[in-house]
Amino acid sequence: MKKTVFTLLLLAMILWGCGSNQTKNKGTNPNSSNLQGTIIINGSDVLYPLAMRWAKTFKSENTGVAIELKSTCSDNAIRNLKAGLINIAMVSRPLSAAEQAQGLLAIPVAMDAVLPVICFDNNNIQQIMLAGVTKSKLAAAFSGKIKTWGQLLNTKSTDPIEVHKLADSTGTTQTWANFLGVKPSQIIGTTEYSNQSMADVLVTKKFGLGYCSMSVVFDLNTNFTRRNLKVIPIDLNSSGQADDNELVFDKLDDFKSIVSAAKYPSPPVRNLFLVIKTQPINPAVNTFVKWTLGIGQNYFKDFGLVTIDKKTANEALKLLK
Prior knowledge:
Blueprint: H1 2-28, E1 37-43, H2 48-61, E2 65-71, H3 74-82, E3 88-91, H4 97-101, E4 104-119, H5 125-131, H6 135-142, H7 149-153, E5 162-166, H8 171-180, E6 190-192, H9 195-202, E7 208-213, H10 214-217, E8 218-219, E9 224-225, E10 229-231, H11 252-260, E11 269-277, H12 283-293, H13 310-319
Parallel strand pairs: 1-2, 1-3, 5-6, 5-7
Antiparallel strand pairs: 3-11, 4-7, 4-10, 4-11, 8-9
């Protein structure tokens, strides 16, 4: 009889232990999240590839959440957010005071830099790389006041400068214009569709001059600048030569370190933002944005962008209720 009672007690303990483990596993399984809803995201083509990775990973951990993504310019994304058509705007510029007053909150989630780029086949490449170009002369070239490479470099070259730009509504153009000290509308030239298309076109344009995100300047497979694409050194101190701190190194990891250490001017270094409405609070949206500031910062390797520092991330988290 005692043996039978002992056996029953032992069996009960085993069954209770199994039930306890099942309950525990259910609670820690990321796919068991109770989070529900659809998150619609529009915005900057610079953040779009990384956001695709974020969305895929976040959905795998929260199977009750659907995420829809679309690339558009920062200004369009802001308009869609204010109209209630989307939940998150990917924006590659800071919010204006008016936009903040309308109940929009910008959360910095990544960094990059807008860089002036040319084709390696440019006849003046040696002079450009040795001397660099001052900010004031770049502003004159992008606004059409300087029309030849000789005027830009103080040489006898009559090679024409063929300016390429992105739409005025893009955060990239607004950042570049802000750095040059001109209005976006003052930058003239052939308009390219995206940062990627800008880089694709410039490698074929012998006399071309453009600007784009660092995320498309570098070949992520080799970690070096794309073949036939060069970054113009900006002669920040007007010394007539490209100093070490004015060079954009050919290796992506080296330039990322410079950006992280704030050793390159801002602008053109910039934060990239996820912008949301402060009211009403959407639990799925809030959780996703918080996730990008934590786990999401581990996915930058394949996208040519720079992670934000922990202090910035912690300050941003405080803004999310």
